[in-house]
Specification:
It is built from 8 helices and no strands. It is an all-alpha fold. The chain folds into 2 domains: 109 residues, no CATH class; 27 residues, no CATH class. It is globular. The structure holds zinc ion.
């Protein structure tokens, strides 16, 4: 009875994947192969796993993008003041340091940290056909190969 359960744990595909996810090999693999797209997916859809400073950094960088891409006739000084008052821009040096190597680098580093600390809480919604990452954790359509896995 006991060995049967053990066998299932090792060879049942779901359980196998589950235990593989908790090995050092898996951790290193995912960290080495982490790309910009996956990092953005993790930071966007698992934002509840961000620290308060990381959350501020995300808000700060998206506010900068909004300000820079906005209407050029807008008064940038007053716009910046409004953003600061609302807490969308920050002066916190720790937060600014997180962003000092650029937004992409920040996302990569943050996603790596999240995977390290909460790897079991992150669901990478990979396409069952081509294995590439879907746009969102709930997507059932692959933008890379067009595969659709909605239940029919
Ligand atoms: Zn696909």
């Amino acid at each position: 009875m006991e060995s049967k359960t053990l066998g299932r744990q090792f060879f049942g595909s779901q359980q196998f994947c589950f235990s593989f996810r908790h090995t050092a090999i898996f951790d290193n693999f995912i960290l080495l192969t982490l790309d910009k797209e996956t990092a953005n997916y993790i930071v966007t859809y698992f934002s509840h796993l961000l620290t308060e400073k990381e959350k501020l950094a995300v808000r700060h960088s998206s506010s900068i993008i909004k300000i820079e891409s906005g209407d050029k006739t807008t008064n940038l000084v007053s716009l910046t003041k409004i953003y600061k008052e609302r807490g969308w821009l920050t002066d916190d040096q720790t937060v600014l340091d997180l962003l000092k190597d650029g937004c992409d680098n920040f996302e990569l580093k943050t996603a790596q940290r999240i995977l390290k600390d909460y790897g079991d809480k992150v669901f990478l919604n990979n396409c069952p056909k081509c294995g590439k990452l879907a746009r969102t954790p709930r997507a059932k359509f692959c933008r890379h190969c067009g595969h659709d896995w909605h239940e029919k």
